[in-house]
Every structure is written in structure tokens, then in C-alpha cells.
Amino acid sequence: MKISKNKIMITAIIVLCVAVAVLAAVLVIRKDKNKDNDDKFTPTIDSDSGEIGTGSNYSGGQQGIRIPGYPSITVDAGKDNVTMNLFNPEGNPCYFTFEIVLSDTGETIYKSDMVEPGKAITNVKLQHPLTAGEHNAVIKISTSSLTDGKTMNGANVETVLVAK
Prior knowledge:
By secondary structure, the protein is an alpha+beta fold. It has a domain at 49-53 and 68-163: Immunoglobulin-like. The protein has one helix at residues 5-38; strands at 49-51, 72-75, 81-88, 94-102, 108-111, 119-125, 133-145, 155-163. The strands form two sheets. It has a five-stranded mixed β-sheet, with no helix packed on it. It starts with a helix and ends with a strand. Residues 38-65 are annotated as: Disordered.
């Protein structure tokens, strides 16, 4: 029995196509499994955050994202490790990230990692100590969804840093 060259070529092409199809299917299945793991959101929680202390300036509100107010914050002059109460009210559907920017210069003197609802940062390490006096600042509060980390509404809260 003699097999023609055309039949051998056709058989080789079919085998090659099947091999490529199997390889492609395996790669797609692996990619889908890895994609499920890659899409899981893992927040970067600020290691300095803890329970909300007394003296928080949040007065209530029932719907949406609750943003605390900071009319003024008193800190130690000449020190870069200062105490304040940057908090994310309990029940919020998001993580908070705090950034303190001096209004006069636009300089960021502090930026936190994420803070969970019901937690606060009380020990803050500034980029540099503040001189004695009043410093106008903005606390930029960025928010990220608890479930997938997507950006939600944020706020810019004007404050005065009183360094004594």
C-alpha cells in the first residue's frame, strides 16, 4: 500500500493544527485562573492606624461617605513626629488616604497609606518639623472602595495647623 505525499502532508497539517489548538486552550485556561487571582484587591493598610480616639470632629450623617472636619489641629513646633487624629468614620464604604498639603507652598508634608473605616492615625511623621505659628493647610482625603479599591468621592478639608 502506497501513501501519497499529499495524504502525508494533510495528515501532518491536521496533527499540527490539533496540537496548536490544544496548546492555545491550555494557555487560555491558565490565563483565566491567574486573572482571578490578580484581580483580587489587596489594600495597603497604614501601619499607624488604630482605633478612633476621643476628640474626633465628625458630627454624623447617615448616607454616603462621611468626611470628618478639622477646623484646626495643634501640633508640637519643631518636631516631625506629631499627634493628631486623622480618622475614617465607622460605617464608611471605603478606605481613606490622607495627604496634608501646606496651602502657601503646595508642599505635601504627610501622606498616609489606607485607613479602614472605624480606624484612625494618631501618630504622624511629617516630612519636616513645622515652625511655631499657624500654617494654613489642606487635608486631601482620597477614598477607595472596600471591595475592589476603585476610587470613590474624596474631599479637600481646609485646616490650620497650629504649631506650639
